Amino acid sequence: MLGLGIKGGRNSPFLRTINRCMQFRMVHLDERDHVLLARRKLPPLTRGQVTRLPEPLQLEHREWQHDPAKEDERSKLRARRLALSLLELGEDVEGTERQLHRWRFHPLAAREATAWAWRRHSEANAAANAWTPDDAA
Fold first, then answer.
1. In angstroms, rounded to a whole number, what is the distance separating the alpha carbons of residues 129 and 104?
2. Which helix (H) or strand (E) holds 36?
3. Where do the H-state alpha helices sit in 6-136?
4. CB-based burial of residue 12 (10 Å sphere; 0-12 exposed, 13-18 middle, 19+ buried)?
5. In whole angstroms, what is the distance from residue 60 CA to residue 57 CA?
6. What value does the mean pLDDT take over residues 2-28?
7. How buried is residue 101: exposed, middle or buried, by Cβ count under 10 Å (0-12/13-18/19+)?
8. Is 112:119 a contact under the CB 8 Å cutoff?
């Protein structure tokens, strides 16, 4: 369907790639339903995998692992949405930040997301409290 033929048998580039992905448990073939299941998130590299990387990539990996500022935008957005949801459900600031830690968000990301959510939550409450029926007209 994608136009990726399997010419060449088991040694075709496409099948070699799929087999390699299966070897590292990035994908799983459900033989009963004939479906290839892929992970949406990958586990971190093992120490052995990191040591086999070229030196520049090892350095980049080390910096990425220990630099919370490089956390991707999707994770930041997700933390903010979760924090705002917790506050809307009645959780306090400390409890919200604690819950984000439990969900494995980096402490700095949890603090930033909670602060952002608290500002949004407070602004929404102030606007709701200031609203009068005359505003609807």
1. 35
2. strand 35-38
3. 13-23, 47-51, 55-66, 73-88, 93-102, 107-130
4. middle
5. 5
6. 79
7. middle
8. no
Specify the pTM: 0.47
Spatial distance between the Cα atoms of 105 and 71, rounded to a whole number of angstroms: 10
Q: Measured between alpha carbons, how far is 68 from 116 in angstroms, rounded to an integer?
A: 17
Q: How many residues does the chain have?
A: 137
CA atoms within a 13 Å half-sphere pointing along the CA-CB vector of 56: 0
Residue-wise pLDDT for 40-92, tens only, equals: 877 778 889 899 999 999 998 887 777 655 657 788 999 999 999 999 999 99
Cα 111 to Cα 85: distance, rounded to the nearest angstrom:
15
What pairs with residue 25 in β-bridges? none
- Residue given tokens 């600031």 in the structure block: 93
Output the six-digit token pair for 38: 């892929």
Cβ burial, residue 91 (10 Å; 0-12/13-18/19+)? middle
